[in-house]
Amino acid sequence: MADITNQGKPATQETLAMHFGFLDDEDKFFALTNRLKAMLRDGQLERIDGIHFSIAPLPTILTGQVACNPKGFGFVVLDDMPDLFLHEKQMRLVFDGDTVEAVATEYRGKTEARIIQVIKHSQLEFIGKLSLDDEGYFVQLSGVNAHQPITVTAENVQTMNAAVGDDVKVCLIDLPTYQEFATGKITELLTSLNDRELIIETTLYNYGIPHEFSQAALTQALKFDEPTDTDFKNRVDLRHLPLVTIDGEDSRDFDDAVYAEKRAGGNYRVVVAIADVSHYVTPQSALDQDAYARGTSVYFPHRVIPMLPEALSNGLCSLNPKVDRLCMVADIKVSRAGKVTGYEFYPAVMHSQARLTYNQVNAYFNDPTNETLPDELVRNSAVLKSIDTLHQLYLVLDARRENRGAMAFETAETYIKFDKQGDIIDIVARTRGDAHKLIEEMMLLANTCAANFSLKHELPVLYRNHDKPNDEKSARLHEYVKSFGLSFPSEAPTHEDYQRIIKATADRPDAISIHSMLLRSMMQANYSPDNIGHFGLAYDEYSHFTSPIRRYPDLMLHRAIKDKVTHRKPATPIYHSLDDAGEQTSLTERRAEEASRDVETWLKCHYMQRHIGDEFNATVTTVTNFGLFVTLDALFIEGLIHISQLGDEYFTYDEREQKLIGERGSRFGLGDGLVIQVAGVNMDLLQIDFRLIEQLNRIDKNGDSQMIPSKPANDKSDTKNERSKKHRRKSNQSK
After folding, report:
1. Are residues 483 and 334 in the same domain?
2. Which residue stretches belong to region Disordered (predicted)?
3. pLDDT (tens digit, 9 = 90+) per residue, 305-320?
């Protein structure tokens, strides 16, 4: 075929058939037709003027990462290009997260990807359920890899004493092909794990998150002793300062301690002491290799996958109370107006006076005479004085934060409570008091000073960047906020534009929904060696300095600053380049966030299986052309009311106003209050389906709530008051 088409002229099918000598052979002509179709589909040929064929130019080979969909198809995710669709046949070769080489092909008028080769499989171990069919045993994976059953032998099943239905860990032996599924070997039974433990374990494998430290790293971590006078040499001794840690009730690793004092003229001195992880984790050591691979600690409900072994993360590196600890210090001078007037960084030794919690410090701020306050707080006048000074400074910095245009969104943070068996007993709102915000402001101070120091001295570090919104997202947001009478630029919005919308909508009942839309319009923050500033925080320069126990970029920054202030020659890092380190740490951060979100979603879906048929009050949080996403008011769990469940009328989607409008007058928009019934839960897709029982109120464009006097057309049940009573009864029982 190449011979004839390479003569310089495209050829028709008849010309090709004549060349091969079977123009009059109907069967061979039909076979040629199918072959030409296949070659067109695979990009080997191209059609000219509808009837002529020519050898296609060599396609561009693209490298990307596979993103699987639980429904069996997927995409090749490419840098700086639209994702390419992967048909089910192509999906036979890959698992989620695999790195592939592919080419773009045309099929039925659509561009798809054809995989040339799998460069790297994202994981070689999986967790699934042992199953049996007519062809033998296999491990059925769940979620995004459900399309890839892994065949195992009967002998392996027998040796492991596994039974059909058992959750097992399986290791790949032979990779999948178009013709054959992958084969593997069961290496561990997971029957002793409860549901919560199992989904966390499964998620770790699905995302390829390292969760077992190398023996070399564990051995290295255990070799360190408590710090001594030898370690204190060439460090500033801050053990006399009443430094304290303020963290959550269940925190086990303490990165940061704080202290503040008033200076002449109403100015302030702030000492932010951060765990000196760099003293223990040196470049290219076994600990460093494991930390770089993890990139960050991963937080699940009741379980943490730490970046460092616990001997360090909860021990020697953690700023535990009443023990000497090595630290890196940002010693900052702040004017009475909240402006940084000077700073210095230095290695130090400290002795935390108290391990305080947010709840304790908030209780003190609310009532200093509270008799339940801990002795470490109320009986230590130096600690109390520092806490009071920190609070005064926080109020100054908070006002300055608002003046510079930093954004403070109304969002709902939740906390899941479990019983001893690992089952959810309640989901409650997590409140943020002044103690949380105080620590946040002190950390922002240290982070910005570290970024400024790094830029001034051209240090080899990663900056925490948050780019401006792109024009496409800005244009959509412009149309959306216009629907409730506010203005927003369609191009190049500023911090002040966002802040104005946040303030104008803060007291509306649909504030959380509106602020979620604002958040979705913004770019994702990342790590890069090139500083572009932080749009959301309204900083020209920003970095992460304050959490080296759980974030690798912070550890990198500590090393660079320490090398500079101690005049030490930098050691060769583990990464090839700062660009590589930026990509790796950004990727591991996203991986950790997605894994945590998946586990939380699974737990909520699992919990809602107990409530199928129950009714709850809910609020509309997202409007789409196929229905409403609503969040349960009492439990903060999101689900979908499909458009078919909204009533017996035709609905039109108004994207600009974010509303569904019915032909007979029904209207649903963000912030509307509803009564819903739990219709079903799909654990494979992690989706909760609701059906509408009643619309209670509607939010108008001014943010006012209007009660709805009548029920939807398909609701022929009891009255609104009776329904509200029934809802309250059921939702109380659910707790």
Report:
1. no
2. 574-593, 702-735
3. 999 999 999 999 999 9
